[in-house]
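re: that chain from earlier
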Amino acid sequence: MAAMTAAHATSAFRRLHHEIGTVDLVGIEERVAKFTTRSIKNQSKMFGLRLAVSMVDLTTLEGKDTPGKVASLCQKAITPHDGADVPQVAAVCVYPSMVKYARKALGAEKIKIASVATAFPSGQAPLKTRLAEVRTAVADGADEIDMVINRGAFLAGEFSLVQDEIAAVLEACGESTLKVILEVSELETYDNIRAASFIAMRVLRPGDFIKTSTGKTSLNATLGNNQVMLEAIRDFYLETGTPIAMKPAGGIRTAKQALQFLIAVKETLGDAWLNNTRYRFGASSLLNDLLRQIEKQTTGAYQAPYYFSEAAESY
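^ sequence. v structure.
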Protein backbone atom coordinates (compact mmCIF):
# COMPACT_ATOMS: atom_id res chain seq x y z
CA MET A 1 0.00 0.00 0.00
CA ALA A 2 2.79 2.43 0.88
CA ALA A 3 4.53 1.64 -2.39
CA MET A 4 1.28 2.21 -4.29
CA THR A 5 0.76 5.54 -2.49
CA ALA A 6 4.30 6.68 -3.30
CA ALA A 7 3.84 5.68 -6.93
CA HIS A 8 0.55 7.59 -7.09
CA ALA A 9 2.18 10.73 -5.67
CA THR A 10 5.14 10.48 -8.07
CA SER A 11 2.81 10.08 -11.04
CA ALA A 12 0.58 12.97 -9.93
CA PHE A 13 3.53 15.32 -9.48
CA ARG A 14 5.03 14.29 -12.81
CA ARG A 15 1.80 15.15 -14.62
CA LEU A 16 1.37 18.48 -12.84
CA HIS A 17 5.00 19.54 -13.33
CA HIS A 18 4.72 18.68 -17.04
CA GLU A 19 1.58 20.81 -17.26
CA ILE A 20 2.77 23.94 -15.45
CA GLY A 21 6.54 23.68 -15.92
CA THR A 22 9.32 23.30 -13.41
CA VAL A 23 11.59 25.83 -11.72
CA ASP A 24 15.07 26.72 -12.92
CA LEU A 25 16.80 26.59 -9.52
CA VAL A 26 20.01 28.24 -10.69
CA GLY A 27 18.08 30.92 -12.55
CA ILE A 28 15.98 31.75 -9.49
CA GLU A 29 19.00 32.03 -7.22
CA GLU A 30 20.87 34.22 -9.71
CA ARG A 31 17.90 36.50 -10.15
CA VAL A 32 17.21 37.05 -6.45
CA ALA A 33 20.90 37.66 -5.82
CA LYS A 34 20.65 40.65 -8.17
CA PHE A 35 17.76 42.09 -6.17
CA THR A 36 20.10 42.47 -3.19
CA THR A 37 22.51 44.62 -5.22
CA ARG A 38 19.98 47.28 -6.24
CA SER A 39 20.54 50.72 -4.71
CA ILE A 40 17.49 52.81 -3.80
CA LYS A 41 18.06 56.33 -2.52
CA ASN A 42 16.34 59.57 -1.58
CA GLN A 43 12.75 59.99 -2.81
CA SER A 44 12.57 56.48 -4.25
CA LYS A 45 13.68 55.00 -0.94
CA MET A 46 11.14 57.04 1.03
CA PHE A 47 8.41 55.97 -1.39
CA GLY A 48 9.39 52.32 -0.90
CA LEU A 49 9.50 52.60 2.89
CA ARG A 50 6.06 54.17 3.12
CA LEU A 51 4.68 51.68 0.63
CA ALA A 52 6.04 48.81 2.72
CA VAL A 53 4.36 50.23 5.87
CA SER A 54 1.05 50.32 4.01
CA MET A 55 1.49 46.62 3.15
CA VAL A 56 2.09 45.30 6.69
CA ASP A 57 -0.37 42.94 8.35
CA LEU A 58 0.18 43.87 12.02
CA THR A 59 -0.19 40.69 13.98
CA THR A 60 -0.58 39.12 17.38
CA LEU A 61 -0.93 35.34 17.56
CA GLU A 62 -0.22 34.32 21.12
CA GLY A 63 -2.07 32.18 23.62
CA LYS A 64 -1.96 35.10 26.07
CA ASP A 65 -3.68 37.57 23.73
CA THR A 66 -6.31 39.71 25.45
CA PRO A 67 -8.88 42.26 24.28
CA GLY A 68 -6.63 44.98 25.69
CA LYS A 69 -3.63 43.79 23.75
CA VAL A 70 -5.66 43.65 20.56
CA ALA A 71 -6.94 47.19 21.17
CA SER A 72 -3.35 48.38 21.60
CA LEU A 73 -2.36 46.63 18.38
CA CYS A 74 -5.21 48.34 16.54
CA GLN A 75 -4.11 51.74 17.81
CA LYS A 76 -0.61 51.09 16.47
CA ALA A 77 -2.15 50.07 13.14
CA ILE A 78 -4.11 53.33 12.96
CA THR A 79 -1.17 55.53 13.98
CA PRO A 80 2.11 53.64 13.47
CA HIS A 81 4.17 56.66 14.55
CA ASP A 82 3.47 60.22 15.65
CA GLY A 83 5.50 63.01 14.11
CA ALA A 84 6.09 61.49 10.69
CA ASP A 85 4.07 61.22 7.52
CA VAL A 86 3.43 57.50 7.80
CA PRO A 87 0.45 55.62 6.32
CA GLN A 88 -1.72 53.21 8.22
CA VAL A 89 -0.92 49.52 7.89
CA ALA A 90 -3.01 47.26 5.66
CA ALA A 91 -4.54 45.00 8.30
CA VAL A 92 -4.43 43.65 11.80
CA CYS A 93 -4.34 39.88 12.09
CA VAL A 94 -5.60 37.98 15.13
CA TYR A 95 -7.01 34.63 16.15
CA PRO A 96 -10.77 34.14 15.47
CA SER A 97 -11.68 34.66 19.13
CA MET A 98 -10.14 38.16 19.01
CA VAL A 99 -11.83 39.37 15.81
CA LYS A 100 -14.77 41.01 17.58
CA TYR A 101 -12.40 43.02 19.79
CA ALA A 102 -10.41 44.19 16.78
CA ARG A 103 -13.63 45.22 15.06
CA LYS A 104 -14.65 47.27 18.08
CA ALA A 105 -11.23 48.91 18.38
CA LEU A 106 -10.93 49.82 14.70
CA GLY A 107 -14.44 51.18 14.34
CA ALA A 108 -14.84 52.93 10.97
CA GLU A 109 -11.14 52.77 10.07
CA LYS A 110 -10.38 51.32 6.63
CA ILE A 111 -7.79 48.92 8.06
CA LYS A 112 -8.73 45.32 7.33
CA ILE A 113 -9.21 42.67 9.99
CA ALA A 114 -7.55 39.38 9.08
CA SER A 115 -7.90 36.17 11.04
CA VAL A 116 -5.91 32.96 10.87
CA ALA A 117 -8.29 30.03 10.72
CA THR A 118 -8.61 26.38 9.66
CA ALA A 119 -6.70 25.11 12.73
CA PHE A 120 -3.72 27.42 12.13
CA PRO A 121 -0.82 26.64 11.96
CA SER A 122 -1.07 22.85 11.56
CA GLY A 123 -4.36 22.57 9.71
CA GLN A 124 -4.82 19.27 11.51
CA ALA A 125 -8.50 19.33 12.34
CA PRO A 126 -11.60 17.90 10.65
CA LEU A 127 -12.78 20.03 7.73
CA LYS A 128 -16.12 20.64 9.46
CA THR A 129 -14.27 22.18 12.41
CA ARG A 130 -12.05 24.30 10.19
CA LEU A 131 -15.03 25.65 8.25
CA ALA A 132 -16.90 26.49 11.45
CA GLU A 133 -13.89 28.51 12.60
CA VAL A 134 -13.90 30.45 9.32
CA ARG A 135 -17.62 31.20 9.52
CA THR A 136 -17.29 32.40 13.11
CA ALA A 137 -14.44 34.77 12.23
CA VAL A 138 -16.35 36.18 9.26
CA ALA A 139 -19.52 36.62 11.31
CA ASP A 140 -17.53 38.52 13.95
CA GLY A 141 -16.18 40.94 11.34
CA ALA A 142 -13.11 39.42 9.65
CA ASP A 143 -12.47 40.98 6.23
CA GLU A 144 -9.79 38.42 5.42
CA ILE A 145 -9.13 34.78 6.30
CA ASP A 146 -5.66 33.22 6.29
CA MET A 147 -6.00 29.45 5.87
CA VAL A 148 -3.37 26.69 5.76
CA ILE A 149 -3.47 24.01 3.10
CA ASN A 150 -3.45 20.30 3.82
CA ARG A 151 0.28 19.72 3.23
CA GLY A 152 -0.02 15.98 3.84
CA ALA A 153 -2.61 15.64 1.09
CA PHE A 154 -0.51 17.77 -1.25
CA LEU A 155 2.66 15.74 -0.72
CA ALA A 156 0.65 12.54 -1.27
CA GLY A 157 -0.41 13.87 -4.66
CA GLU A 158 -4.05 14.30 -3.61
CA PHE A 159 -4.41 17.57 -5.45
CA SER A 160 -8.18 17.36 -5.89
CA LEU A 161 -8.60 17.04 -2.14
CA VAL A 162 -6.43 20.11 -1.55
CA GLN A 163 -8.44 22.11 -4.07
CA ASP A 164 -11.77 20.90 -2.70
CA GLU A 165 -10.81 22.04 0.79
CA ILE A 166 -9.69 25.46 -0.47
CA ALA A 167 -12.97 25.79 -2.37
CA ALA A 168 -14.94 24.91 0.76
CA VAL A 169 -13.08 27.53 2.80
CA LEU A 170 -13.60 30.07 0.03
CA GLU A 171 -17.34 29.45 0.16
CA ALA A 172 -17.31 29.86 3.94
CA CYS A 173 -15.50 33.19 3.50
CA GLY A 174 -18.38 34.72 1.58
CA GLU A 175 -17.18 38.15 0.46
CA SER A 176 -14.10 38.09 2.71
CA THR A 177 -10.71 37.79 1.04
CA LEU A 178 -8.93 34.45 1.31
CA LYS A 179 -5.19 34.03 1.78
CA VAL A 180 -3.95 30.48 1.18
CA ILE A 181 -0.84 29.60 3.18
CA LEU A 182 1.37 27.03 1.43
CA GLU A 183 3.83 26.56 4.33
CA VAL A 184 6.75 26.46 1.91
CA SER A 185 9.23 24.97 4.37
CA GLU A 186 7.20 21.74 4.36
CA LEU A 187 6.86 21.53 0.57
CA GLU A 188 10.53 20.54 0.16
CA THR A 189 11.33 21.89 -3.34
CA TYR A 190 10.81 24.94 -5.52
CA ASP A 191 8.97 22.73 -8.00
CA ASN A 192 6.51 21.78 -5.27
CA ILE A 193 6.06 25.43 -4.23
CA ARG A 194 5.19 26.31 -7.83
CA ALA A 195 2.82 23.35 -8.03
CA ALA A 196 1.05 24.26 -4.79
CA SER A 197 0.73 27.85 -5.99
CA PHE A 198 -1.06 26.74 -9.15
CA ILE A 199 -3.32 24.33 -7.28
CA ALA A 200 -4.45 27.17 -5.02
CA MET A 201 -4.72 29.83 -7.74
CA ARG A 202 -6.98 27.64 -9.88
CA VAL A 203 -9.60 27.87 -7.11
CA LEU A 204 -9.13 31.49 -6.04
CA ARG A 205 -10.87 34.68 -7.13
CA PRO A 206 -9.13 37.84 -8.39
CA GLY A 207 -7.62 39.61 -5.37
CA ASP A 208 -7.31 36.52 -3.18
CA PHE A 209 -3.78 35.72 -1.98
CA ILE A 210 -1.25 32.96 -1.92
CA LYS A 211 1.06 33.19 1.09
CA THR A 212 4.41 31.62 1.88
CA SER A 213 4.26 30.62 5.52
CA THR A 214 2.62 30.56 8.91
CA GLY A 215 5.77 31.95 10.48
CA LYS A 216 5.70 29.02 12.90
CA THR A 217 8.31 26.82 11.18
CA SER A 218 12.08 27.04 10.89
CA LEU A 219 12.07 28.45 7.33
CA ASN A 220 9.68 31.20 6.29
CA ALA A 221 9.72 33.79 3.52
CA THR A 222 12.90 34.12 1.48
CA LEU A 223 13.62 36.01 -1.71
CA GLY A 224 13.90 32.60 -3.40
CA ASN A 225 10.53 31.12 -2.47
CA ASN A 226 8.91 34.55 -2.88
CA GLN A 227 10.28 34.69 -6.44
CA VAL A 228 9.00 31.22 -7.28
CA MET A 229 5.51 32.29 -6.19
CA LEU A 230 5.69 35.65 -7.97
CA GLU A 231 6.61 33.92 -11.21
CA ALA A 232 3.76 31.44 -10.71
CA ILE A 233 1.38 34.40 -10.26
CA ARG A 234 2.78 36.02 -13.42
CA ASP A 235 2.43 32.85 -15.48
CA PHE A 236 -1.08 32.18 -14.17
CA TYR A 237 -2.10 35.76 -14.95
CA LEU A 238 -0.76 35.51 -18.49
CA GLU A 239 -2.65 32.23 -18.92
CA THR A 240 -5.99 33.21 -17.37
CA GLY A 241 -6.11 36.97 -16.86
CA THR A 242 -6.80 36.40 -13.15
CA PRO A 243 -4.68 38.63 -10.86
CA ILE A 244 -3.77 36.74 -7.68
CA ALA A 245 -2.17 38.62 -4.78
CA MET A 246 0.91 37.59 -2.80
CA LYS A 247 1.95 37.63 0.86
CA PRO A 248 5.41 36.62 2.08
CA ALA A 249 5.27 35.94 5.82
CA GLY A 250 7.82 35.39 8.56
CA GLY A 251 11.50 36.22 8.64
CA ILE A 252 11.29 39.68 7.04
CA ARG A 253 12.55 41.93 9.81
CA THR A 254 14.43 44.84 8.23
CA ALA A 255 13.53 47.67 5.89
CA LYS A 256 16.39 46.63 3.63
CA GLN A 257 14.81 43.20 3.18
CA ALA A 258 11.39 44.71 2.52
CA LEU A 259 12.77 46.94 -0.22
CA GLN A 260 14.42 43.92 -1.85
CA PHE A 261 11.08 42.10 -1.86
CA LEU A 262 9.41 45.14 -3.44
CA ILE A 263 12.08 45.24 -6.15
CA ALA A 264 11.24 41.61 -6.89
CA VAL A 265 7.55 42.51 -7.22
CA LYS A 266 8.20 45.45 -9.54
CA GLU A 267 10.59 43.55 -11.80
CA THR A 268 8.43 40.40 -11.96
CA LEU A 269 4.81 41.60 -11.87
CA GLY A 270 5.07 45.34 -12.46
CA ASP A 271 3.52 48.38 -10.83
CA ALA A 272 0.01 46.90 -10.80
CA TRP A 273 1.08 44.70 -7.87
CA LEU A 274 2.76 47.51 -5.91
CA ASN A 275 -0.17 48.17 -3.59
CA ASN A 276 -1.65 46.51 -0.53
CA THR A 277 -4.54 44.93 -2.40
CA ARG A 278 -2.06 42.73 -4.27
CA TYR A 279 0.97 42.48 -1.97
CA ARG A 280 1.35 42.24 1.81
CA PHE A 281 4.07 41.60 4.36
CA GLY A 282 3.16 39.15 7.13
CA ALA A 283 5.95 40.48 9.33
CA SER A 284 4.86 42.78 12.10
CA SER A 285 8.31 43.12 13.64
CA LEU A 286 9.31 44.73 10.34
CA LEU A 287 7.20 47.79 11.08
CA ASN A 288 9.48 49.44 13.63
CA ASP A 289 12.54 49.15 11.39
CA LEU A 290 10.58 50.74 8.56
CA LEU A 291 9.66 53.57 10.96
CA ARG A 292 13.29 53.99 12.00
CA GLN A 293 14.36 54.27 8.39
CA ILE A 294 11.60 56.78 7.59
CA GLU A 295 12.70 58.86 10.59
CA LYS A 296 16.30 58.67 9.37
CA GLN A 297 15.29 59.83 5.89
CA THR A 298 13.27 62.68 7.41
CA THR A 299 15.60 63.95 10.17
CA GLY A 300 18.99 62.53 9.22
CA ALA A 301 19.32 60.70 12.56
CA TYR A 302 18.52 57.16 13.67
CA GLN A 303 16.27 56.73 16.67
CA ALA A 304 16.82 54.01 19.25
CA PRO A 305 14.47 51.02 18.89
CA TYR A 306 12.68 51.90 22.14
CA TYR A 307 11.67 55.23 20.56
CA PHE A 308 8.88 53.34 18.81
CA SER A 309 6.10 51.40 20.48
CA GLU A 310 6.48 47.65 20.31
CA ALA A 311 4.74 45.72 17.56
CA ALA A 312 3.49 42.19 18.01
CA GLU A 313 5.49 39.16 17.01
CA SER A 314 5.96 38.52 13.30
CA TYR A 315 4.38 35.66 11.45
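Strands lie at 57-59, 91-94, 112-116, 144-148, 177-181, 209-211, 245-247.
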